[in-house]
Amino acid sequence: MWHAVGSVMVPALVDSRLDAGDLDGACTLAEAMVSAAPLCVPPLHTLTKLTRAFGKARCMPGVYACLEAQLAGGLEADAESLQVLVDALVRSARFVKGGVSMDTLPREPIPEVAFIGRSNVGKSSLVNMVLGRRAIAYTSKTPGKTQQYNYFILNEPAAGQRAAVGTFHVVDMPGLGYAKVPGAERRKWLTFLGQYAAARPQLRLLVHLVDGQVGPMEVDLAIMRMVKEAHARAGSAAGASVASNADESGIAAEVIEAVRAVEASGATGGGAGCPWRYAIVLTKADKGGLMAVKRSRIAVERALEEIGWLEPADIVMTSSKAKTGRHEMWRLLRPVILS
């Protein structure tokens, strides 16, 4: 009985704190719902109502507390709750600019999440699905056609105001279509990626998309190697050298050449510690059966082990078509949104 009373009383208290403008108090009570789960969780419609209220108040920690309470309580989302969540976390989205080199990227100190993957892996579709927008990220069926880092600002502050919690950049990076892109262009892309990951202070999360039906391909392994080298360099002191295997060949050799170019440029995180996380998202989980995706996950874990990746790396399964994995993606984005 106490659990039933608590599942009604706590949300009512959260609501009253919100009405009084006490966001800190409302967040504390909302986090109590997470701690009490799964024994004492409000029904989905109540959490949806609170999510909408926190979103209206532009209180992102409260929105995330409602999401965590829902997941901890084992409540399955419906179409309304998903839309309310997206509306609470994404009030606006606008294309800012396309960057082709480090000095052409936005200079504002706004946290950013970058999405990278081989061409036609479903990168732009995933970005659009997660953010609840039909065409925020550009799509193309021609590998290598988009050759710039497309920047979008989410929850842009009003003119003259500073960016608040919840304002962040989404970076839609070029799809790496090796088969149709000249070698010189590939090396240019890899060098830019290495510079970006090693020396971009605004970067908080790098999301690498891998086709869940085929697993990591040669281009994915190349991205992993570059990310590893750049990650090590971002957390090292200026001028530190990152070791590479000189016996590699093919695309791996291009990665090593690009890493050396990054080192020659002096790109570094300044030794203050690497601020960004690396996550791998398996796309197209709705096709070919779950076993194929599970095999791909195992292959990704093995690949990370083989390249010597020692940091935590989240692996998430998604489907833009079935709209699965959206909650998991929003959990990945939490450090970006709340930073």
From TrEMBL:
GTP-binding keyword on record: yes
Name of a matching Pfam family: MMR_HSR1
GO-annotated molecular function: GTP binding; metal ion binding
Biological process (GO), any one: cell division
Keywords: Cell cycle, Cell division, GTP-binding, Magnesium, Metal-binding, Nucleotide-binding, Septation
Domain EngB-type G: 109-306
Cofactor list: Mg(2+)
Keyword Transcription regulation: no
PANTHER family from the UniProt entry: ENGB-TYPE G DOMAIN-CONTAINING PROTEIN, MSS1/TRME-RELATED GTP-BINDING PROTEIN
Family membership noted in the UniProt record: Belongs to the TRAFAC class TrmE-Era-EngA-EngB-Septin-like GTPase superfamily. EngB GTPase family.
Protein known as: Ribosome biogenesis gtp-binding protein
